[in-house]
Design brief:
This is Diaminopimelate decarboxylase. Keywords: Amino-acid biosynthesis, Decarboxylase, Lyase, Lysine biosynthesis, Pyridoxal phosphate. Belongs to the Orn/Lys/Arg decarboxylase class-II family. LysA subfamily. It catalyses: meso-2,6-diaminopimelate + H(+) = L-lysine + CO2. The termini are far apart. The strands form three sheets. Strands 4, 14, 15, 16, 17, 18, 19, 20 and 21 form a nine-stranded mixed beta sheet that branches. The chain has an eight-stranded parallel β-barrel with strand order 5-6-7-8-9-11-12-13, surrounded by six helices. Helix 5 crosses helix 6 and helix 8 packs parallel to helix 9. It is an alpha/beta fold and about 425 residues long. It contains twelve helices and 21 strands. Bound molecules: ligand LLP. Ligand LLP binds next to helix 10 and helix 11.
């Protein structure tokens, strides 16, 4: 929760903490998460689905690929959400936080035997199967370990989405899931039922991310239910769980209206009731699972940088060089993602100068913001990027051998260091000679 200081109305605070002091104390670049914003986002999802989706129960899984730490996992658990994890690493962070394993879904298109064994040993609630190799691998491992893990079959739904090419996952050529139209999805279900080693809980599909319309979700759900009805007639099996994935959008500088989870909840409810009608479903409705990542965490996080230099070019662009950049936020370079920036102090100044906000990395593509109007900012000042909570830190690298930023979680009472700033010792410790 951002506000201005009571003593100085022209400087910014987060949850009552002076950003200037946080930057001085913890160094920059610094990522800061606001606990209240996370809690509110979780509550908003819970409320939206409690209100709108009365057909059956709903499980909300936070997609931890958007950002995860043990401290955040504990907060997510307290809020009653589950987790969608995609690697042994994310699973171990959840485990360290003593996250309730039955509330975890293990996703991914190429889980290793080691990761699958870890998931079974820890007792994750469901493993989402992506392809035939994985189905065979997990069946074999489950047999060896004499277990019957819960699984979902991920269906490639052949659903088009209106989002960046790299953020589409449900189209006909996408790499995720068992294709529907080739019959692979149905055949995967039959195989699991025939072999009896895996406990088939349900069906899953995810069509993309940064989605602003509900149509792709409805198409996914409809296709999953059609498949379920077909398989029920043939085998008697009926899903206990059904998931149209995650991917709900957030507000961005070019589309500033905030998509409301209640819209999604209402559309899913309508869609399911419609399907019950048209497909003549008399079975109990499956539990609905949704997997929001970005829309839970993006707004809760900010990035704080210090400007190290300002440079005017003969071409007319004036740069502000900050002490982070593409290694802690690859999103502008990778997806053309848009961010905006704010000063932290002397807020009374007019935003009357155009800058390109560029990082410290040795690449021309290292631009956080191609053009933003700011006050006449100078070397030494702090620059804040809002809505930096999702997919920045988890995609961070050590490019140019620069240590990764520190990460805080703040609320009114406390400042928690969620991740300490990486040190040169951390970096050097990985070399073997
Ligand atoms: N469920 C599944 C199966 C997914 O593949 C994803 C995202 C999610 C849920 C969560 O989507 P969200 O609600 O966070 O949009 N690095 C990209 C985003 C990649 C998302 C991949 N899968 C970015 O920075 O925009």
């Amino acid at each position: 929760t951002m506000s201005v200081s009571a003593s100085d109305p022209f400087t910014l605070e987060l949850a009552g903490h002076s950003l200037k002091q946080l930057a001085e104390r913890y160094g920059t670049p610094l990522y800061i998460f606001d606990r209240a914003t996370i809690v509110n986002a979780c509550a908003q999802y819970r409320e939206a689905f409690r209100r709108e989706y009365q057909a059956s129960s709903v499980q909300i899984l936070y997609a931890s690929k958007a950002y995860l730490s043990p401290m955040l996992a504990r907060l997510i658990a307290e809020e009653g959400l589950g987790l969608d994890v995609v690697s042994g690493g994310e699973l171990l962070v959840a485990h360290r936080a003593a996250f309730p394993m039955e509330r975890i879904s293990f996703h991914g298109n190429n889980k290793s035997a080691e990761e699958l064994r870890l998931a079974l040993r820890l007792g994750v609630g469901r493993i989402v199967l992506d392809n035939w190799s994985e189905l065979r691998r997990l069946t074999q491992i489950a047999r060896e370990m004499q277990m019957h893990p819960g699984v979902l079959v991920r269906v490639a739904p052949d659903v088009e989405t209106d989002t960046h090419r790299y953020l589409q996952t449900g189209h006909a050529t996408a790499k995720f899931g068992f294709p529907l139209s080739t019959g692979d999805a149905a055949e995967a279900v039959r195989t699991i039922l025939r072999e009896g080693q895996l406990h088939l809980l349900g069906l899953h599909a995810h069509s993309g991310t940064m989605l602003r319309e509900t149509r792709p979700y409805e198409e996914c759900l409809q296709r999953l239910l059609e498949l379920a009805v077909l398989l029920h007639k043939e085998t008697g099996w009926w899903p206990q769980e059904l998931s149209p994935g995650g991917g709900w959008a957030i507000a961005t500088p070019d589309a500033p209206d905030r998509p409301d989870p209640a819209l999604l909840a209402a559309a899913l409810q309508r869609c399911i009731l419609h399907c019950v009608d048209t497909l003549k479903i008399s079975q109990p409705l499956p539990m609905l699972i949704i997997e929001p990542g970005r829309s839970i965490i993006a707004r809760a996080g900010i990035a704080l940088y210090r400007i190290g230099a300002r440079k005017a070019t003969p071409g007319g662009i004036t740069y502000l060089f900050v002490d982070g950049g593409m290694a802690d936020n690859i999103r502008p370079a990778l997806y053309g993602a848009l961010y905006t920036a704010l000063p932290v102090e002397q807020l009374e100044r007019e935003h009357d100068v155009s800058f390109c906000v560029s990082g410290r990395y040795c690449e021309s593509g290292d631009m956080l913001i191609e053009e933003v109007r700011l006050p006449d900012m100078r070397e030494g000042e702090l620059l804040l990027l809002p809505t930096a909570g999702a997919y920045c830190l988890p995609m961070a690298s050590n490019y140019n051998l620069v240590p990764r930023p520190g990460v805080l979680l703040v609320d009114k009472e406390t400042i928690h260091v969620m991740e300490r700033r990486e040190t040169y010792d951390d970096l050097l410790s990985r070399y073997c000679d």
